[in-house]
Design goal:
The structure holds 2 protein chains of 2 kinds. By secondary structure, chain A is an alpha/beta fold. A 7-stranded mixed beta sheet of chain A has the order 3-2-4-5-7-6-12, with helices on both faces. In chain A, strands 9-11-10-13-14 form a 5-stranded mixed beta sheet, sandwiched between helices. In chain A, strands 1-8 form a two-stranded antiparallel sheet. The radius of gyration of chain B is 20 Å and the shape is globular. The chains are: A alpha/beta, B alpha/beta.
Chain lengths: 323, 340
């Protein structure tokens, strides 16, 4: 059993041993061992040439990463959180995502932008946002969001080896989350969802730390005699439509549990796909449990009211089952 | 004019005849290309944005002659001149403006986005100042790979006010990246003069905050640009870190084709036109008998023909296949685009 933070650290370390072109840069990644200790020990192993502390200048170092990627390296750019990556969106959206197209294939941008996304306790408005749907809106990017240590390690390795620019979303609250990871080398493919639990009455789709909320709901529902199929998206873009559609054709009902805001969030895209490709199979409207359509204030009651909870998921499931 | 020619006289002996003729041909090619592009725009053969380089030709000529072929270069969107100077063909560039599949970027980039891996040209970038950190990243990769190439990172006076510049200057100096920052100061960020955008209107001084060696350069003279670049490149190549050149130049036309440039006086424009870099070099070449009238006239004819041919080539070339919309978005084969 290793933690999520160790899984990410192992993935980066193994890929840096494997490929001299890979390096890590970001705030506090080297001497401090990472703001969340994800890169612990990496400076010691690889030295300051390949584990680079940056000043607090997200736009600047993201752009330096893009330039290095265009010129033959494979940077991993850590954002302390995706909230701070907003300062670098110009480089991610206007450059990393566009380089291949505007150069008609002359220059690619094999880069991984990574860091935690989502609410993480009472951190208030500016430190509690999710960015999966923002980034997934942009052609040219791929977006991965997961917390399972096995998946995360395998997907991080795939991301670092991938030739396209990748936004990798982790979770501050789940860095200590443990899971089984084998000693031997493996990767997990980008663009494939995982069916975590098979069920027959309803499909629940989720990703990142909302998987914990969904899992809890599935367990409670089971006690109430409702068999839910639970799907972990793992990759947001490209979205694995096929796994979701196949499941809904079987269960005829869908609840999406999504920490992003409701407007044009990940859940909205999934709902569109299902009405288009599983319309005749649906026994109830697709329902979603999102973060509320508000900013997240500081005090504790706001957090519960804002985020999806197992209770909210159970309520949504009962709604689609007309119970 | 005469005194100006006298001033540079001492330096003239420094270069072989071929170099002067190269500068002349380079600048004239850019001028004629841009004049024709404007004409083609008015005929609606070219659409979208069109930012021409007329007046600034000495900058691309001097940079080209000072750099090594392996030195990567990145710039902003007023970029036809630098691409042509680096060796992009008039055919490929004109076809790109026409949006044809034979264009330098298969019609995918247009006026703002020429790229060429072969020429180590990193574009052609449309977001003001965004290419500055990218240029430093290109330099970081050269340093990482232990080459002695220097990244030439160009931007305009408008970009000098972006935060990205300051973030990049700071990191580039901290890490001693092999980069020469070239600010092409043509006096106006679209319609706003340099003086109106900051208390600091001598842009080379922006390097001082980061203890970056920085100096102003006469951008209406290819020899001055060449010499300054040569020195700056040698500094960066020797591992001493970045260098900033503020090359003072002038664009004769508006910011883009849609800009009548009413924010500046006719007198100012005429004063700069009197310092025209092509006329300056031509008069030096003739006065100093570096080459004959016939040689100059041969170059002129050859470039006129080249531009005529480029337009004919662009006209005759096919438009891109709309299916190309789905190529060059991802390197992954069979990326599952959402198509409905």
């Amino acid at each position: 059993m290793i933690t999520l933070r160790e899984a990410i650290g192992e993935a980066m370390t193994e890929e840096m041993r494997r490929d001299e072109r890979v390096f890590l840069m970001g705030e506090e990644v080297a001497e401090y061992n990472g703001a969340y200790k994800v890169s612990r020990g990496m400076l010691e192993e690889f030295g300051p040439r390949r584990v680079i502390d940056t000043p607090i200048a997200e736009l600047g170092f993201a752009g330096i990463g893009v330039g290095a990627a265009m010129n033959g390296l494979r940077p991993i750019v850590e954002f302390m959180t995706w909230n701070f990556a907003v300062l670098a969106f110009d480089q991610i959206v206007n450059n990393a995502a566009k380089t291949l197209s505007q150069s008609a294939g002359d220059y690619s941008c094999p880069i991984v932008f990574r860091g935690p996304s989502g609410a993480a306790g009472q951190l208030a408005q500016q430190h509690s946002q999710t960015f999966e749907s923002w980034m997934a809106n942009v052609p040219g990017l791929k977006v991965i969001s997961c917390i399972d240590p096995y998946d995360t390690k395998g997907l991080m390795k795939s991301a670092i080896r991938d030739d396209d620019p990748i936004c990798f979303m982790e979770s501050e609250m789940m860095y200590g989350y443990k899971g089984d990871v084998p000693e031997e080398e493996y990767t997990v493919p980008i663009g494939k969802a995982a069916v975590r639990q098979s069920g027959s009455d309803v499909t629940i789709v989720s990703y990142n730390k909302m998987m914990i909320v969904a899992q809890k709901a599935v367990e409670d529902l089971e006690k109430q005699g409702i068999s839910a199929e639970l799907i972990d998206l793992r990759t947001i873009r490209p979205l694995d439509h096929e796994t979701i559609v196949t499941s809904v054709k079987k269960t005829n009902r869908l609840v999406v549990v999504d920490e992003s805001w409701p407007f044009a969030g990940v859940s909205a895209e999934i709902a569109y796909e299902i009405q288009k490709y599983a319309f005749d199979y649906l026994d109830a409207p697709v329902t979603r449990v999102n973060a509320q359509d508000t900013s997240l204030p500081y005090a504790a009651p706001f957090v519960d009211a804002y985020l999806p909870t197992p209770e909210k998921v159970i309520k949504a499931v009962k709604e689609v089952m007309y119970r | 004019m005469a005194t100006r020619a006298k001033k540079v006289k001492k330096k003239i002996v420094n270069y072989p005849q071929e170099q002067y003729l190269d500068w002349y041909a380079c600048m004239l090619r850019v001028r004629k290309f841009e004049e024709r592009a404007l004409m083609m725009y008015s005929k609606q053969k070219i659409r979208g944005f069109l930012h021409v380089y007329i007046g600034q030709e000495a900058v691309c000529a001097g940079i080209k002659s000072a750099k090594r072929i392996e030195d990567p270069l990145i710039t902003a969107y007023r970029q036809h001149g630098i691409a042509l100077a680096l060796g992009a063909t008039s055919d490929a560039c004109m076809a790109e403006l026409f949006g044809k599949s034979t264009g330098i970027n298969k019609g995918k980039g247009g006026s703002m986005h020429f790229f060429s891996k072969e020429l180590r040209y990193f574009g052609g970038n449309g977001i003001v100042g965004a290419q500055i950190p990218i240029g430093a990243g290109i330099a970081l990769a050269e340093q990482y790979k232990k080459t002695d190439n220097v990244s030439i990172t160009m931007f305009g006076d408008g970009a000098a006010r972006q935060g990205a510049l300051h973030e990049t200057f700071n990191m580039a100096m901290t890490w001693k990246l092999p980069v020469v920052f070239v600010c092409e100061n043509n006096g106006y960020a679209m319609g706003t003069s340099v003086e109106r955008t900051s208390n600091v209107d001598e842009l080379y001084k922006l390097g001082w905050s980061y203890e970056m060696p920085s100096e102003p350069v006469d951008g209406m003279n290819p020899m001055a640009v060449h010499e300054a670049m040569h020195k700056a490149l040698a500094h960066a190549r020797s591992g001493k870190g970045p260098y900033l050149l503020e090359i003072k130049t002038y664009r004769y036309r508006g910011h883009s084709v849609s800009d009548p440039a009413k924010y500046r006086s006719k007198k100012e424009l005429e004063a700069y036109k009197a310092k025209d870099p092509i006329h300056l070099l031509e008069s030096i070449i003739l006065q100093e008998k570096i080459a004959s009238n016939e040689q100059i006239s041969t170059i002129q004819k050859s470039i006129h023909q080249e531009i005529d041919d480029a337009v004919a080539f662009a006209e005759a070339s096919p438009l891109p296949d709309p299916a190309e919309l789905f190529t060059d978005n991802y390197l992954q084969d069979n990326y599952p685009f959402i198509k409905d």
